[in-house]
Each structure stands twice: as C-alpha cells, then as structure tokens.
C-alpha cells in the first residue's frame, strides 16, 4: 500500500498535535479565568502546614489542570512572601499528583466525539455575551479538542508502522535495558522542557503507543521523563525573583529528580506490577485491537496515565516525611547575611488566638503597626546606603505591603456587630492609622528609590542629606526610639529648613547639578512633604481616641466576677 507522507502522516500528525496543544491551552485558560484568583486566595490561606499544602496543591492543580501554572503560581506567592518555603514544597508535591488527573482524562477513548463537542462549545463561546459562560465554553472546547487532536495524531502515526526506515530508527528507543531506559527518560525530559508541558508530551506518547509505533513499556518510560522535564518551567519563572522563589523552583526540580532516580532502578519491577494491575482496566496493553481492519493499542494510553498517577503518589508518600529536610537544605542555597535580618513580610504580634479578645487584640495591632512604621523607617537607611539596611528597596517595600494587608485584614476582623460604639470607634481609628502608615511607607519607598537610582554632585548631595535628616527627625513624632541621635541642646532648638527653602536651594544649584539631579531632588522633596503630612496625621489619629481608657474599660468588662470563696462578696440571693 502506497503511503502519501504529506496527506496520510504530516497533515493529521501536525494538525492533531496543534489541536491537542491548543486544547490544553484553551482548557487551562478557561478554567484559570474562572477560578485562578479564587484558587490563589485559597492557596494562600490553605497552605499553612505541609499536609494542608499537599491537599491544596492536589485540589487546585486538579481543577486548573496545569501543574505548570500551579508551580509558577506557587513560585510567585513565595516571591511575594504570601506562602512560606516549607508549605510551598508540599504544595508542589500535591501539584504533581493533581496533574495526573488530566493524564487520566486524556486516556479516555472519546476519539472523534471530541470534534462534535468542540464545535458545539465553539458556537457557545462565539455567540454568548456572558463572560462566565464564555470561559466555561472555552474550557469545554479545549477539553474536547484534546481528544480529537489525540485521535488525529494516532491515525496519522499509524502508517509509520509500514515504513521500515522509521521503525528501525524507533527501535533504538526501546526501554528494554537500563541504558535505553535512561535514554528514553532524558529524551522525554528534553522534549517536555522545550514545549513546557508534560501533558503535551504524555499526549504525544499516548498517540505513538496507541498507534503501535512505541511499545507500551517505552511509552511508560517516556511519561517518566515528562515528569522530569516539566520542572524547567518553574525554574525559568523564578530566574528574576527572590531567593525563596528560586528555592521553591529548586524544590520542584529536586523532588521530581529524586523520584525519577528512585523509580528508574525499580522500573522493570514496576512494569510487571502495572501489567498485573491492568487486568482491572481492560487487560494487557501489549495486545492489539482491530479497528476498521487496522491494529490499535487503546490500552497503552490507560497504562501510561495509570503509571504516571501511581508514580507521583508514590513519590509524594516517599518524600513527604522529608519536607523539613528539603527546607533546611534549600535555605542554605544562596544564603547570605542579608537573610538573617528581620522578615517584615510575616506578622510578629497578630496572634489569631486572641482575635476574639478585644483587650488583647488591640495592643497586638498597635505593636504590629509600630513594627510596620519601623520597617518604613528603614527606607531612610537604604537611601543613606547603610551597611545593615535591606539591599533592595523594591523587595523591602513588597514585604511591608504584605504586612500592611495582614494588619488591615486582622483589624477589620475585630469589628463585631455586638461591640459597644467606643470599641468600634477605636477599631476604626486603628484601621485609619494602618492606612496612613501604609501610605507613609510608600512615600518613604519613593524617597529611597529616587536617591538610590541617581548619582548626585557634592552640592546636590548636601541638599539630599539635609532633606533626609529633616524627614528622619520628623519621624521621632511617631517613633520616639528611632531617628538621629538626640542633639545636645534644649528641646525645640533643633530646626531644619522647610521644604520650600530646600526647593529654592535646588533651583539655585544651576551649573552645579544637572537637570536630572535637580528633577530627582524636587520629586524627592515632594515625597518628603507628603511623608511629613502623613506623620502628623498618624499622630493626630492616635490622639483622636483615648485608647488606654477604652481598653481599660474593656478589660474590666471581660474580667470574671470574684467568687465568694476567693475573698470577694457573695452574690445577694433574689427575693
């Protein structure tokens, strides 16, 4: 039988592969548009412990159907300081389990029905005006295209069995020895790294196996390599991010690498176990089935999907007890003295256990807000280039912004409907102070950023130094323990030039400073002026409510009534 390579092989294979990958993209995009923000919020809340992290990773990846998107999301949350490194490692373990659900779905023998369903949902997507309905239709259309694309690929690959040259080449990719097994794993890892999708690689392998081009053992070996190659995406996503984000990516790489290294020596034993287990899923995957007079191997995709699922579950169960070891080892990767400084992205005083105790929760908020102010004051140290100051103003601002959100969320949760008005008024005052503090920190960040990115002449630098000292001294109004050393002269005799005078000095620099320098100083003075206004506003907000008096009354209301046997007055019996 003559084979038209273009019509019988290239068209269905390339078209099928394109539709398969387009289906993956549509399904992932549709589901993520529907739920990724909720999933991100859920992950940030749920990933508190390693066990919860595994469960959250499995659930979310099972929903959004993309371990790549999941690991990139985790790396981003670690970079933002929302998720710590230890639970992030467990989330990645769970993501590897969750993604196998998609591999199992791909193995379903839906075939040509995918074209009918994709056409139907494409019409829904085109004519619907509701964004939610459109995203659901996009997900369903992508899901259907996966099956139709896989069916096209399988049909296009089948004629290759009648081409001796191709079969001779593919015969070198037989997982019949450990050397050849490692070769198959590395080739699959390389392909996956190039196309950034383990699901796509496994789909291609399923097509080759179903068409009889690859024997089922080799197809299973390729699925093992796909799990290894998918780690490249999380690593690429972390390249320009924080060290902890990089460590989360390294956790993904090391986790999958260790799993593959453990599984490879056990591969041929596990294959026999898989052959035995396949009797509950249809029989021996090596036995062909005649469809239209042609041999097909419909159980190969089932075997590949089952093996991939069991591998990831086994890998997680094996390595989960060592999450703490992973964390300790990864924390030493790229460790510097800068990491020993305080982490302002994590609250220190906001104890959830006392959130229902007004008299204890309010002082916790005040302490955390004061800590937020201290973090903001460090921007002056950054601007001055002090040795122990945070090295990157952007990263430090990100940490303070996370802390600010935690303070606002904790404080807002204190507002209960049954609280007296004076207590509600106090909580409102705390919320306003936290908001002004966040705005002040943002202005301080602008100060540090502008100073750090401009090189000033000597005379321009002198104005900058005076401006920074002025802001530093102003901070003492709300941070008594921070700022320049107490001057050896009576209170009230320390004066700094006003912003207007500093602005006039800047304009008078003339040829002693470039236009860029003068523009930077003027913008800097604007940030300092806003910062000083916010300092005064924070001080006024603290005085707007007699907080100590309100707290004292709340503490008395919460104090238990003394019992008679404890020396107090016995209650008077009712008449």
From TrEMBL:
Pfam families per UniProt: Na_Pi_cotrans (PF02690)
Membrane association type: Multi-pass membrane protein
This protein's record includes keyword Hydrolase: no
Keywords recorded for this protein, A-Z: Cell membrane, Membrane, Transmembrane, Transmembrane helix
Biased composition (Low complexity): 552-562
Alphabetical list of InterPro entries matching this protein: Na/Pi_transpt (IPR003841)
Protein's name according to its UniProt entry: Phosphate:Na+ symporter
């Amino acid at each position: 039988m003559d084979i038209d390579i273009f019509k019988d092989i290239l068209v269905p294979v390339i078209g099928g592969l394109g539709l398969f990958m387009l289906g993956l993209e549509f399904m992932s995009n549709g589901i993520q548009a529907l739920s990724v923000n909720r999933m991100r919020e859920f992950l940030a809340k749920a990933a508190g412990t390693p066990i919860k992290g595994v469960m959250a990773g499995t659930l979310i990846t099972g929903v959004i159907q993309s371990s790549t998107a999941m690991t990139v999301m985790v790396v981003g949350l670690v970079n933002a300081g929302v998720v710590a490194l230890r639970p992030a490692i467990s989330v990645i373990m769970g993501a590897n389990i969750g993604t196998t659900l998609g591999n199992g779905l791909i193995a379903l023998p839906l075939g040509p029905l995918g074209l009918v369903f994709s056409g139907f949902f494409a019409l829904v997507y085109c004519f619907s005006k509701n964004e939610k309905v459109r995203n659901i239709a996009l997900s369903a259309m992508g899901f259907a295209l996966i099956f139709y694309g896989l069916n096209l690929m399988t049909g296009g690959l089948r004629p290759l069995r009648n081409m001796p040259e191709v079969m001779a080449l593919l015969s070198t990719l037989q997982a019949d020895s450990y050397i050849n097994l490692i070769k198959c794993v590395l080739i699959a890892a390389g392909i996956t790294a190039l196309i950034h999708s383990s699901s796509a690689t496994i789909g291609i392998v399923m097509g080759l196996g179903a068409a009889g081009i690859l024997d089922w053992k080799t197809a299973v070996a390729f699925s093992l390599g796909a799990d290894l190659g998918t780690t490249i995406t999380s690593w690429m996503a972390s390249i320009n991010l924080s060290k902890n984000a990089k460590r989360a990516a390294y956790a993904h790489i090391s986790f999958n690498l260790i799993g593959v290294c453990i599984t490879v020596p056990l591969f041929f034993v596990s294959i026999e176990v898989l052959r035995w287990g396949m009797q509950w899923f249809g029989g021996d995957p090596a036995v062909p089935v005649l469809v239209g007079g042609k041999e097909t191997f419909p159980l190969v995709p089932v075997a590949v999907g089952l093996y991939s699922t069991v591998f990831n579950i086994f890998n997680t169960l094996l390595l989960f007890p060592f999450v703490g070891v992973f964390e300790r080892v990864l924390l030493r990767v790229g460790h510097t003295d800068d990491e020993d400084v305080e982490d302002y992205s994590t609250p220190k005083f906001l104890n959830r256990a006392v959130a229902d105790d007004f008299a204890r929760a309010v002082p916790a908020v005040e302490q955390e807000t004061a800590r937020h102010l201290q973090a903001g004051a460090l921007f002056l140290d950054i601007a001055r280039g002090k040795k122990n100051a945070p090295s990157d103003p952007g990263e430090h601002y990100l940490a303070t912004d996370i802390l600010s959100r935690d303070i606002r969320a904790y404080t807002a949760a204190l507002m209960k409907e049954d609280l007296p008005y004076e207590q509600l008024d106090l909580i409102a005052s705390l919320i306003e102070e936290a908001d002004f503090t966040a705005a002040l920190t943002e202005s301080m960040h602008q100060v540090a950023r502008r100073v750090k990115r401009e090189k000033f002449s000597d005379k321009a630098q002198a104005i900058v130094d005076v401006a920074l000292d002025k802001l530093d001294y102003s901070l003492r109004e709300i941070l008594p323990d921070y700022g320049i050393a107490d001057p050896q002269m009576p209170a009230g005799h320390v004066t700094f030039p006003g912003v207007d005078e500093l602005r006039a000095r800047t304009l008078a620099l003339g040829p002693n400073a470039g236009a860029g320098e003068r523009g930077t100083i003027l913008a800097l003075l604007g940030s300092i002026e806003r910062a000083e206004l916010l300092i005064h506003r924070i001080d006024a907000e603290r005085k707007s409510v007699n907080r100590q008096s309100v707290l004292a009354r709340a503490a008395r209301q919460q104090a238990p009534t003394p019992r008679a046997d404890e020396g107090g007055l016995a209650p008077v019996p009712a008449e």
